[in-house]
Specification:
Blueprint: E1 7-15, H1 33-44, E2 48-52, H2 53-59, H3 68-76, E3 84-88, E4 107-111, H4 113-117, E5 127-130, E6 133-134, E7 137-138, H5 140-149, E8 154-157, H6 161-169, E9 175-181, E10 207-215, E11 218-225
Parallel strand pairs: 1-8, 1-9, 2-3, 2-8, 3-4, 4-5
Antiparallel strand pairs: 6-7, 9-11, 10-11
């Protein structure tokens, strides 16, 4: 287990059949207002928010904290009003015209040396980090160490499935918050919470259920990774 890294929580909403988007990878707007408030609360508890470039491309924006009580809590804790929003992209190819770049949040990019070259001399990202590479992509252990070095003690991961899979494979995830929403999306190629090559049953990460909460038609599941 890697110890020099932030405490990491994955927060996702999914359909009853375990899809986080439809077959066209459309933005997942099927969660209720309660789910959005739940997500905002989780974001308010962390120092940084991580998401993949595919997630950013789908939405074009990131979720900011707007609840006055949550903003006041962060102020009392001596934190900035918004956590750092960190895009993770091996290629670094992101449209600078996305509305995300006009949102008043600290913006970082975790990418490769090649990806970082795209953003040299540009101001869309406040910081760009070229992370060490492995054959299959970014070295997430090195990325976790960099986040800890930068003072981030707790981070939330908002997708997509490839990023979550990479973090799980590197043993960098501590908790899951999964909201089960009352619809069936189906589709062999529809995105799921964890993509990648998958895990064999005897090697799969095991979870401990911490809580179950039902609000109207949604179920909120809270898990901790067993180690």
């Amino acid at each position: 287990m890697v110890t020099n890294r932030p405490y990491t929580i994955v927060v996702l909403a999914m359909s009853a059949d375990g899809k986080i988007a439809d077959v066209q990878a459309s933005p997942a707007r099927f969660g209720s207002g309660v789910d959005k408030a739940h997500l905002e609360k989780q974001i308010a508890l962390v120092d940084g928010v991580l998401f993949g470039a595919g997630t950013l491309r789908a939405y074009g924006t990131t979720l900011m904290i707007s609840d006055p009580e949550l903003l006041e809590q962060r102020e009392l804790q001596g934190k900035k009003s918004q956590p750092t929003h960190i895009v993770c992209s091996g290629s670094g190819k992101i449209d600078p015209k996305l509305r995300f770049f006009q949102q008043p949040v600290p913006r970082w990019l975790f990418t490769t040396i090649k990806g970082s070259q795209i953003w040299q001399g540009k101001r869309e990202f406040h910081k760009v980090f070229a992370i060490k590479m492995l054959e299959e992509g970014i070295n997430w252990v090195a990325a976790g160490e960099k986040l800890a070095e930068l003072g981030l003690q707790k981070v939330a991961v908002l997708g997509g499935g490839k990023l979550v899979a990479s973090l799980l494979e590197a043993d960098l995830v501590d908790e899951f918050w999964l909201t089960v929403c009352p619809l069936i999306l189906g589709g062999e190629n529809a995105p799921s919470p964890v993509a990648g090559a998958g895990f064999l049953a005897n090697l799969a990460p095991k979870l401990q259920l911490l809580s179950v909460k039902t609000v109207d038609q949604e179920v909120f599941l809270h898990y901790r990774l067993q180690r």
